[in-house]
Write a sequence for this structure.
């Protein structure tokens, strides 16, 4: 392709995005667009799959049948999200195996929040309320992102996530209205999950590397700091209803800004976890690797059986 | 808290019968739930979680009914979480550990075929609630049966490795199949009173159904002289206590709270 032709395709591509039209897998796209989307979408898919683990940790111990069923369904939803995000990523010309390989080798990232342990039942409530709450704020803008398969997947993901968030909040509400022991359990979970949840929006705008390009491709519509502020403003009144206190002594409504002011985030902790040294990084990744490796003979069997079946069919037809 | 038969007074026999049925779904569901997040593929993970969800859904229907029949006030959760090990009536088969995926499938397969035949008969129960639960559940279980049978075929007729693994799992779990067809006291009573299923009559059809799949899967059908039994009388394997420690952890640690 001549340089002129490429320029022409680029112009068509950019005009499409400007008109808010979707880019589809078979459309021409710049290599960087493809790569960025593979990176972000697969990171998102990996987060869903790794995210099954901290919550899955409580399936066998859920405190009631109703909660057990809800938790199973939730973790299953996450598997479903992973499935359609992987499928959407595959439309960009990369296989599921390659994507897994990137996760297992540590090359691909997933959301750092899942490297924190779920040590009490209240953590299941806190994850639903805070982590899913933060995820929704991050993800709602993606429902109108420029890449069609991603945008469509996100519409469905967001619907289910907001259901999960309500469910998580309801767990917190039950605990907050329960015995002093239960309330303490809820407060402790909020104390541990609050700051990591704020970190989910990524580094501050002045430190964030991808923002400008991502804005242009509608992978992002607001900056990390704007989204973080939105989350805080939305969550503080919810904590008040629960009668729980947010573990930030600097948290205060700022009349002038029309937002809550909040204390400094521990970015050293953020980078420690991102770089692989959080409380559960090694465990989480190892669990995924183990599931994949222990499943190999099963996948091989399914493949071999399918081949045999196809062969027999051919023979019969012959 | 421990629920004894005398807590239930006149409905005691029926409640025991319901527990005998429901505990199988409860314990098998608990085992299946262990797999969530660790399946060999994402698709299988989702399917297995579905089975667990179906089983717990059934458990809730049964236990809510049993709780309604009980004279002493109790809830579905009391029945699920607050009995002692000896009070659980599930067959030994369903409590066996998920040693590997072959065991998950073999256990499910050997139970599903029984479960299907059982529910098919329970639909005719003179007890309207049990009949209704059976009618709803059999649709789910016919899917479970298809899922586990398909996987028995894939593993049996897949690679030499998978064949060896599923054969071993079938061999190891086979001794637990006889118990499925041996009624406990509550089951005998239930047949007498007309609301129960005569499970001893299901064995021949069961044998035919599973042997058909196993043969097609090129799995050798074990020929055993001795079988294991006890679960239905509350005499469980050593695995059961650990399963219950997990399952009952919250209810035992924080008694009397709402979640």
């Amino acid at each position: 392709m001549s340089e002129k032709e490429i320029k022409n395709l680029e112009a068509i591509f950019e005009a499409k995005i400007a008109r808010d039209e979707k880019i589809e897998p078979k459309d021409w796209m710049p290599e960087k667009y493809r790569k960025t989307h593979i990176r972000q979408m697969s990171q998102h898919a990996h987060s869903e799959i790794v995210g099954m683990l901290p919550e899955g940790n409580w399936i066998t111990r859920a405190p009631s049948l109703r909660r057990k069923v809800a938790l199973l369904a939730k973790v299953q939803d996450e598997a479903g999200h992973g499935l359609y995000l992987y499928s959407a990523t595959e439309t960009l010309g990369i296989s599921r195996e390659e994507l897994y390989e990137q996760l297992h080798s540590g090359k691909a990232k997933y959301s750092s929040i899942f490297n924190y342990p779920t040590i009490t039942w209240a953590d299941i409530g806190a994850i639903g309320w805070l982590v899913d709450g933060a995820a929704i704020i991050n993800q709602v803008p993606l429902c109108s992102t420029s890449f069609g398969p991603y945008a469509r997947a996100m519409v469905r993901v967001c619907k289910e996530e907001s259901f999960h968030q309500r469910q998580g909040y309801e767990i917190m509400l039950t605990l907050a209205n329960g015995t002093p022991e239960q309330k303490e359990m809820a407060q402790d979970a909020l104390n541990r999950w609050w700051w990591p949840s704020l970190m989910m929006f990524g580094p501050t705008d002045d430190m964030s590397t991808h923002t400008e390009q991502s804005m242009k491709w509608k992978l992002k519509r607001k900056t990390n700091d704007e989204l973080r502020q939105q989350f805080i403003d939305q969550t503080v009144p919810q904590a008040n209803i629960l009668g729980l206190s947010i573990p930030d002594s600097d948290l205060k409504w700022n009349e002038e800004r029309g937002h809550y002011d909040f204390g400094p985030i521990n970015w050293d902790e953020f980078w420690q976890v991102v770089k692989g040294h959080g409380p559960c990084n090694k465990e989480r990744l190892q669990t995924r690797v183990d599931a994949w490796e222990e499943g190999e003979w099963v996948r091989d069997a399914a493949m071999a059986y399918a081949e045999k079946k196809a062969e027999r069919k051919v023979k019969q037809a012959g | 808290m421990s629920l004894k038969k005398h807590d239930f007074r006149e409905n005691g026999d029926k409640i025991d019968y319901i527990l005998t049925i429901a505990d199988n779904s409860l314990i098998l569901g608990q085992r299946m739930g262990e797999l969530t997040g660790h399946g060999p593929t994402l698709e299988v993970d989702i399917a297995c979680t579905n089975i667990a969800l179906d089983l717990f859904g059934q458990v809730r229907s049964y236990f809510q009914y049993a709780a309604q029949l009980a004279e002493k006030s109790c809830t579905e959760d009391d029945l699920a979480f607050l009995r002692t090990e000896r009070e659980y009536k599930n067959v030994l088969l369903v409590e066996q550990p998920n040693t590997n995926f072959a065991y998950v499938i073999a256990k499910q397969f050997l139970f599903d075929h029984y479960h299907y035949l059982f529910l098919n008969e329970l639909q005719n129960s003179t007890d309207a609630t049990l009949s209704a639960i059976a009618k709803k559940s059999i649709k789910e279980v016919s899917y479970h049966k298809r899922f586990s049978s398909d996987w028995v075929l894939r593993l049996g007729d897949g690679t030499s490795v998978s064949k060896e693994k599923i054969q071993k799992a079938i061999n190891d779990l086979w001794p637990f199949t006889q118990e499925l067809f041996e009624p406990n006291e509550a089951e005998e009573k239930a047949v007498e009173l007309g609301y129960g299923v005569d499970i001893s009559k299901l064995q021949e059809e069961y044998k035919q159904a599973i042997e058909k799949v196993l043969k097609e899967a090129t799995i050798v059908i074990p020929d055993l002289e001795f079988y294991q039994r006890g679960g239905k009388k509350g005499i469980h394997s050593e695995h059961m206590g650990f399963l219950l420690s997990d399952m009952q952890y919250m209810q035992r640690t924080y008694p009397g709270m709402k979640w």
